[in-house]
Design goal:
mainly alpha; binds zinc ion; 2 strands; 135 residues; two-stranded antiparallel ribbon; single chain; 4 helices; elongated
Length: 135
């Protein structure tokens, strides 16, 4: 291998290497790859904390149905239905996060997907809350 090819296969930060990240295809040396994974780990922790806050809201809602007696049956049914569906979708994400966290197989794409998913679920709950407060 000539010098030019060598350098394209080296860590951008210290020119040692190469270890290729399967997620972003970035090239790192062993040391900087570990650092790169640690950064992803920090992002994952942030996603998990967002996830827990959302789960908390859903659980609070489930235990707090009495407060919603003021709505008519159809509204209540619709609202519960959305909460249940959101809960169901979140459970799926929870399992995925848990499994990939344990096996450390999460990649950039997973983090992006989870954070989008959680944001979407959060938005649908937010909408519902705003609508309820307007009534
Ligand atoms: Zn990467
Ligand atoms: Zn390096």
């Amino acid at each position: 291998m000539d010098k030019k090819n060598m350098s394209t296969l080296s860590c951008k930060l210290c020119l040692h290497g190469p270890t290729i990240c399967n997620g972003c295809k970035g090239i790192y040396c062993e040391e900087h790859y570990i650092e790169h994974r640690q950064n992803l780990g920090t992002k994952l922790e942030r996603i998990i904390s967002d996830h827990d806050i959302l789960l908390d809201r859903l659980t609070t809602h489930a235990n707090d149905n009495d407060r919603h007696r003021i709505y008519n049956d159809i509204d209540e049914w619709k609202q519960n239905n959305i909460f249940n569906k959101t809960h169901e979708k979140l459970k799926h994400t929870t399992n995925d996060i848990r499994e990939k966290k344990t096996t450390k197989t999460y990649l950039e794409q997973d983090l992006e997907q989870w954070s989008n998913q959680i944001q979407k679920l959060k938005d649908s709950i937010e909408l519902l809350t705003i609508k309820s407060n307007d009534d």
